[in-house]
What does this fold into?
Amino acid sequence: MDGTIATTVGINQATGGGVLLPDAVLDKLYQSYALKQKRVAFTCYLIASILFDIWAIAVPQGQSVESIVVTSVFLTINIVLAIVLRFCGRGRFRGVIWEIAPHLAWLLAIKQLFLQLFLKGSVTPRDSLGWAVLLNFLVYVTLPVLLKYTGILLGLGSFATYVNAIIGLAKKENYFWEQQVANVFLLIAATLIGLLCYFLAEAKQRRAFLEAKQGLEVKMLIEEQSAEQERLLLSVLPEHVAVKMRQDLGSTNSEQFKKIYMSRHENVR
It folds into this structure.
């Protein structure tokens, strides 16, 4: 990829067309930039998971001892994952770590959601609904994954896991299916809000990326023109006179334009 960039830049500089990168290269650069920007938001996802674990342990809600033990295990794993990202997320293996961490964190949340419902003695159609709604929202807003394929699959997985778990485990009490319809609407609303936030952030990040690209193009064009001007200057003036002229032109003294650059040469043949 670096060779392609260098070749393209060289061709455009030679033709005076500025800097132009291929669309495929720009797309890869933007995807890398966008994922790095979302790594900060991933911390919010881990914090939300840790707080939910603490709430599930501390607040009495009829949970069994097995459920508390399982939640404690997930709490420990989430804390360890946060520590690993904090101290190893910028090290030698940061690429591999950040590739695995979002999928692992999502998988932990889904497994915990299912196991809490499975281990609970009496499941109602509204159990863990708040966390399921929040999870469907956070998948699109905080996970540093691309929306195409991966993001959509994770979102659909969160949606389907909760709905199927409730249908399979909850008691078929009065207004059961009406509650399921309400659950589905809440999950869809959370998904749509998450997608809206995703696309708004995407537009902002793409605009910032394009502005940075344009700034880089201007900088490279200025450097190219400066090098060309220096070459032309050295082609008509001796080097020591050209150096002196550049120093004077870079000075803040307003009298520099009144100088006459003249040297005396003897025995010139």
